[in-house]
Design goal:
By secondary structure, this protein is mainly α. The protein folds into 2 domains: 5-152, Up-down Bundle (Vanadium-containing Chloroperoxidase, domain 1), CATH 1.20.144; 185-416, Vanadium-containing Chloroperoxidase, domain 2. It contains 14 helices and 4 strands. The protein has helices spanning 5-21, 37-49, 54-76, 94-109, 115-126, 132-152, 212-224, 234-242, 247-261, 266-294, 299-304, 335-351, 377-390, 396-416, and strands spanning 23-25, 29-31, 358-363, 369-374. The strands form 2 sheets. A two-stranded antiparallel ribbon has the order 1-2. It has a two-stranded antiparallel sheet with strand order 3-4. The chain is elongated, with a radius of gyration of 22 Å.
């Protein structure tokens, strides 16, 4: 078992009997102990998927949690299904359904699956008493996973699209020129989980390279984002260092922290995680669609070639190197700030407040680990906007447009998925923060 380890197993054991006796409340809520199973399997999924590139990891997390939601909702019956509602009785085991849904989706995503996955599954099922409830829960989870894998077959993953390098001022090209282009550029062509057209959330694009706004962003990232000779304070370097390593893994851990702190039931956890990761997946698809549309150069290229941009307020520096290695795809808009927005806005709308304090721990680019504490989800998101400038890999306009896309997609997802059965209202609706 991973981070939850023995604590998670003991908590899950203690919750099973009480959960099976819990009284169902209209709207999909459950008078049951706080969830352990969904969060435990989200941690397992994250451990297996986040070593992959972010594109694959986020899509996989959305598939896992979409299946978990459908399996749990089939038993609870309080909300509209995502894909299809498996046949399940109200007495089926939620914990068995969660484990079976997650395990079987991961089996379909991992080739070959690690041995630890089977042992994790066996350990989860061992904690559920044998009997009809366990059997019915497994069947619901297996059915939801099968439906999810079938629905996502041929969804555009691993397609042939690649970003095309340009030569004119403002056009993206690899930095350095020997860099291999993004092998996951196909993300722009992947079928969304919820919305019909990712282009509906397109940004207005980067500022013209001859504009005053562009010059301001250029000079900011040039001054603050270099690996050496930067005007960054130590506090700013700490921010850049913290947000540099595996954003998908870090944000997945933040989602688990928030769910645990809020003591969600299994039913509510299933919906919360599914909303979060489907919003994140659709947000990144929209962002990669926009990256392909604008194909704007990264700060390193812009600073090296500023003599040719036609802007009197920018100046070149052929030796400038960013704090963080330049990613192999266009600048605009930012993927990390959009991901941060999908996670934080979902939390704000789901919990009905932005006043949620939490801490997050991450591996650091410069070695070791670090922990940062935030007074709200929006504070963490705003720090990421700054971090991508401080790391020297984004213009601020790209970061801010990533936030706008994330807000638009997340609001759309919340307004259309997982509605209460028989209720035309929309308690998921997201407002601007």
């Amino acid at each position: 078992m991973r981070l939850f380890g023995l604590i998670a197993i003991l908590a899950l054991t203690a919750s099973i009997a009480a959960a099976s006796a819990g009284t169902r409340i209209a709207g999909g809520h459950s008078a049951a102990p706080p969830d352990v199973a969904v969060t435990h399997w989200s941690e397992i999924a994250s451990a297996q998927l986040t070593p992959m590139p972010s594109a694959r990891a986020i899509l996989g997390m959305a598939m896992v949690h979409g299946a978990i939601y459908d399996a749990v909702n089939a038993i609870d019956g309080g909300r509209q299904p995502y894909l299809a509602q498996p046949a399940a009785s109200a007495t089926a085991s939620l914990d068995a359904a969660v484990a079976a849904a997650a395990y079987n989706v991961l089996l379909g995503l991992l080739s070959p699956p690690p041995d630890t996955l089977a042992s994790d599954y066996a350990a989860s099922l061992t904690l559920v008493p044998d009997g009809p409830a366990k059997t019915a829960g497994i069947a619901a989870g297996e059915a939801a996973a099968s439906t999810m894998l079938a629905a996502r077959a041929g969804d555009g993953r691993s397609g042939g699209f690649r970003f095309t390098a340009g030569a004119s001022p403002g056009q993206w090209r690899p930095e350095p020129s020997t860099q291999v282009g993004d092998p996951n550029a196909w993300l722009k062509d992947v079928t969304t989980f919820a919305n019909d057209n990712p282009a509906d959330f397109a940004s207005e694009g980067p500022d013209p390279v001859t504009s005053e706004n562009y010059a301001a962003d250029f000079n900011e990232v040039k001054a603050l984002g270099g690996v050496t000779g930067s005007a960054r304070t130590q506090a700013q370097t700490d921010i850049a260092n913290f947000w540099a390593v595996n954003p998908t893994r870090l944000w997945s851990s933040i989602v688990r922290t928030l769910a645990t702190q809020q003591q969600l039931s299994t039913v509510d956890s299933a919906r919360y995680y599914a909303l979060t990761f489907m919003s994140a997946a659709d947000t990144l698809i929209a962002v990669w669609t926009d990256k392909a549309r604008w194909s704007f150069w990264r700060p390193a290229t812009a600073i090296h070639e500023a003599a040719n941009d036609g802007n009197p307020d920018t100046s070149p520096d052929a030796t400038w190197t960013p704090f963080l290695t330049t990613p192999p795809y266009p600048d605009h808009p930012s993927g990390h700030t959009s991901l941060a927005t999908a996670v934080t806005v979902t939390a704000q709308q789901f919990f009905g407040t932005d006043e949620i304090s939490f801490s997050a721990t991450n591996s650091l680019l410069l070695g070791g680990t670090g922990t940062r504490t935030f007074t709200s989800p929006s504070q963490a998101r705003n720090e990421v906007v700054d971090a991508r400038v401080l790391q020297g890999i984004h213009f601020r306009n790209a970061d801010e447009d990533g936030v706008k896309i994330g807000k638009g997609v997340t609001k759309w997802v919340a307004n259309h998925l997982f509605q209460t059965v028989g209720d035309d209202g929309n308690e998921n609706q997201v407002g601007d923060d």
